[in-house]
Write a structure and sequence with these properties.
The protein is an alpha/beta fold. It has helices at about 75-95, 105-110, 115-125, 135-145, 185-195, 200-225, 240-255, 265-275, 280-285, 295-310, 325-335, 345-350, 350-360, 365-385, 390-405, 415-425, 435-445, 455-460, 465-485, 520-535, and strands at about 25-30, 35-45, 50-60, 100-105, 130, 155-160, 165-170, 180, 235, 265, 315-320, 490-500, 505-510, 540-545.
Length: about 550
């Protein structure tokens, strides 16, 4: 295993496929954003480990052009996105990508019909799109930037201005100090705040004040995590900042550098551009060389967001990094597959650390929860490929649910399983997609009382049939695990499953920690909890106390 991810020289976008070696793997990553859909195809060199971008695809689909009456994704925008995603699949296939990983952000996250859109894409294209939270988006942006530049243990602030949100990340090459996502984006502000052309003095001032107010909390939190005397370097990602840097370079030097990595934009030049753009009509902005039609519509609000961030952080300039969310998806995949250690090693345990952080927040009895988790995973492992065929990803979701199943006690003992659902759903667990968080929350929700039913709103929120099935098959294991620590004193040392599948029977040998303990309460609880297991798997479960060593 190699101990770090290298910083490869930045190459120009390659449009023709290259032939990977036998050891290389090809992966596609798609970012379904508010303004655009971007895809990169990466050739992963596992033995280094690093990756090279061998293909790109982009389409400006404006998913953020919501229906003004309902706030839903419009039919036209969804159709544009469908065409773009189908094209991405074709390109990925032509470059022999072994897997396509897609993530959706702000627009789909907020739209009432966002899940319906994702279901349509899955049904018609067979493409599963992971819906991720703002904090998770920021974390993957951080990974993407770290794959392209060295921070040398010095603080950097990453600014990613999207169509619907702006992410601010403070980090020094190790674990991020802060991750924030604020609902100010170039498309959102243009649609909601800009009604005049050119923008009026009153509207401009109002937009400036609105941006300042929206970003204030995130910037204050970021500044609170800076050590005395630290002056972070600003790194800009996303189309808005790249466009501004390119426009400035074209005007000053007569050409746009390729690649843009490392190019800088000063706050002074940014202010000059804003003062010019605010006086222009859309038609006049369209005439600026290098400014596309779609970008010209939203460039001013995007530039104003950047100016506010730089002003508040007292930054004189910002440097471009062309890697961002989609490259972060690649890095995250490499971490998950054990290809990266050390410098990004903490990212491999981000899920676990996020879960344990939630246990602290909700004052979970961790000793009890860890025993429940051990029993749940033991049941999972012993029944795998006998009663179910789930793998490591589903095992992780079961573990997370077991650790957090009782967090609802933080609100009230009464109906605490329902409170657990709510707290998990809004805990901003990092490293998980929205559907994975929904799955964890539902598993915890059903660790007691009723079984999953279609009339339950929580269960209906599982719009993925696969994740519904995960809940249906794994919640009975969690129920048994909870029963095995009924007194919360560690009365049970271990369990062993013995199968007679011809007779559809399973004996559960329960070994007590103290052989003088009859474990009557645990056995009684198992008898009451085993019904859901027997119904789901079609086997008779017989708990047996193993009284001899």
């Amino acid at each position: 295993m190699v101990n770090s991810i290298s910083n490869p020289p930045q190459e120009n976008p390659v449009t023709l496929p290259t032939v990977p070696s036998d050891r290389d793997r090809v992966l596609a990553a798609i970012d379904v954003g508010t303004n655009s859909i971007h895809m990169v195809i990466a050739r992963i060199q596992s033995d280094i480990p690093t990756f090279t971008i061998v293909g790109r695809e982009k389409a400006t689909v404006r998913l953020g052009d919501f229906c003004k009456k309902t706030g839903e994704l419009s039919a036209e925008a969804m159709d544009r996105a469908f065409v773009a995603l189908k094209r991405c699949q074709e390109v990925a296939k032509s470059l022999n990508a072994e897997q396509v990983i897609a993530v959706a952000t702000s627009a789909v996250r907020e739209a009432p019909n966002g899940q319906e859109f994702l279901q349509r894409i899955e049904n018609e294209l067979g493409l599963w799109i992971n819906l991720i939270s703002g904090a998770e988006e920021a974390r993957r942006i951080y990974l993407g930037v770290l794959s392209a530049m060295s921070f040398n243990n010095q603080p950097h602030v990453i600014v990613d201005i999207g169509g619907g949100s702006t992410e601010l990340i403070l980090g020094d090459g190790h674990e991020p100090r802060t991750l924030s996502s604020t609902k100010v984006g170039a498309v959102r502000l243009t649609a909601e705040q800009v009604k005049t052309d050119p923008i009026s003095v009153t509207e401009f001032a109002g937009l400036q004040a609105y941006i300042r107010g929206m970003l204030e909390r995130s910037i204050e939190d970021l500044q609170a995590h800076l050590n005395p005397g630290e002056r972070p370097r600003l790194v800009g990602t996303s189309g808005t900042i790249e466009t501004l840097v390119a426009l400035n370079a074209r005007e000053k030097f007569g050409a746009v550098p390729v690649p843009l990595n490392g190019c800088e934009l000063s706050l002074k030049d940014l202010k000059d551009w804003i003062n010019r753009l605010r006086k222009m009509t859309l038609a006049e902005r369209l005439a600026i060389p290098g400014l596309s039609e779609r970008r010209s519509e939203i460039i001013l609000p995007g530039a104003m967001i950047l100016q506010e961030v730089m002003t508040q952080l007292k930054a004189e300039s910002i440097v471009i990094c062309e890697r961002s969310l989609r490259e972060g998806v690649i890095v995250d995949w490499m971490v998950a597959h054990g290809l990266i250690e050390d410098r990004l090693r903490y990212q491999g345990s981000v899920r676990e650390r996020s879960i344990f952080k939630a246990t602290q927040k909700y004052q979970v009895n961790l000793e009890h929860s860890q025993r429940v988790a051990e029993f749940a995973l033991s049941l999972f492992d012993q029944t795998q490929e006998k009663l179910h065929f789930w793998g490591d990803e589903e095992r992780m979701l079961l573990w997370a649910a077991a650790i957090l199943h009782n967090c609802g006690h933080h609100i009230s003992h009464s109906s605490h399983h329902k409170h657990s659902y709510y707290l998990i759903r809004h805990a901003e667990l990092l490293g998980f997609t929205e559907m994975e968080i929904e799955t964890i929350a539902n598993l915890a929700r059903y660790h007691r009382k009723n079984s999953p039913k279609k009339r339950h709103e929580t269960y209906r929120n599982l719009t993925s049939k696969r994740h519904r099935r995960v809940v249906e098959q794994l919640y009975p294991l969690l129920r048994l695990a909870v029963a095995l620590d009924r007194r919360q004193i560690g009365a049970i040392q271990s369990i062993q499953c013995q199968f007679n599948l011809d007779q559809r029977e399973m004996r559960l040998l329960v070994k007590p920690s103290n052989f003088d303990d009859p474990c009557e309460l645990e056995l009684w609880s198992l008898a009451g909890k085993k019904g859901s297991f027997e119904t789901e798997y079609g086997v008779k479960l017989t708990p047996v106390l193993q009284v001899s060593a």
